Amino acid sequence: MSAPPRLKGIREAYEKLHGALESKAGWGRRNVAETLLGQCQAEEREHRGFLPAFARHHAPSTPGVLDMARLFAVKRVAEYLRGESFPVGKDYLHCQRSCFIAAGIVDEYRAEVLAAWAGLDLEALAALDYRDFVVVANAGEL
What is the mean pLDDT of residues 55-72? Predict the structure, then answer.
């Protein structure tokens, strides 16, 4: 499947995740799906922090930070739903913070997420690969 339809599927999966957790936010609290997305965005911005070199060395069709943040949010939740080991305390020093948020979502709201994602292919969501979307161009200059 080409990137644009796959991006549409990622966006749909994120929206369903967000919707499933909306009622869990409580008054005055942020939806934890938004917290996860925000952390994924921060991590992707940090990764792309070497702009303009990033733009110079990647294909113009490379999706933006928000779409790649959605990819990681959905991928991580799907991985934990499928049985990936949750991070433990010492992992905090070695893993991206978004891994802990995604693991928390699955640990606390597994049933709600599974219900929201009924009909979606968890295997495909867990297998999403950043490199399929963010293509290096001009690698010889890196």
Answer: 87
